[in-house]
Amino acid sequence: MIEQTTPKKIVIAPNGPYLVYGNPNIVQKKQISSEHGEPMTWQTNQPIETGNRPVVALCRCGGSANKPFCDGTHARNGFDGSETAATNTFEERKTVHEGSTGIVIKRDYSLCAESGFCGHRLANIQKLAKHTDDSIVRAQVMAMIERCPSGSYTYALDEHSADIEPDLPQQIAVTTEMTSDGPIAGPLWVTGGITVERSDGKETEVRNRVTLCRCGESKNKPFCDGTHRAIHAQP
What we know:
The protein is mainly β. It has two domains: 135 residues, no CATH class; 67 residues, no CATH class. 11% of the residues lie in helices and 28% in strands.
């Protein structure tokens, strides 16, 4: 007998939480930064136990006292969870960095979560793009793009090739980012092509990696726009 499994899916409740179906792996990830405050990589910490529940409600308003789970605070704090993000595709929104060699660098600015992996104190992807005829620089750009949690950056080897994506598990990561003032609550990092359904019933574009707002203040809901860093969202 073939065991039937529920597809992994996130359904956004109107002005409410993220309802997670299919029992995907939910973990904690912490941003690792250099002594100069530059994001370097992610450290995966212990998994978050959900008790194998068929539906798990994750906080979206940022006010739960039981993060990452919803505790109903959204119903008391006047949370407006209206989704304002564009509903077209990455391909339609992308821009392409000019001047690169051996790599086509694509960017969807609307998806940027300000995680900071696209640069360091000496340069950023935009500056490095002009020097990708050097294979060492090109490899550095590829690594930066693959660490971008939101998928705001992607790349292909040439204009006729498909984008190259990191091999990521079907997983939801509750992230913690590091700042000069200490740790803050980062977005939900959703990987592996998990479907995200808006509160109006329409599905967002299924992608290998996206970041969902969990501070409640993004101007591009349901996606993170980096506002959590401005307001110093509490873990």
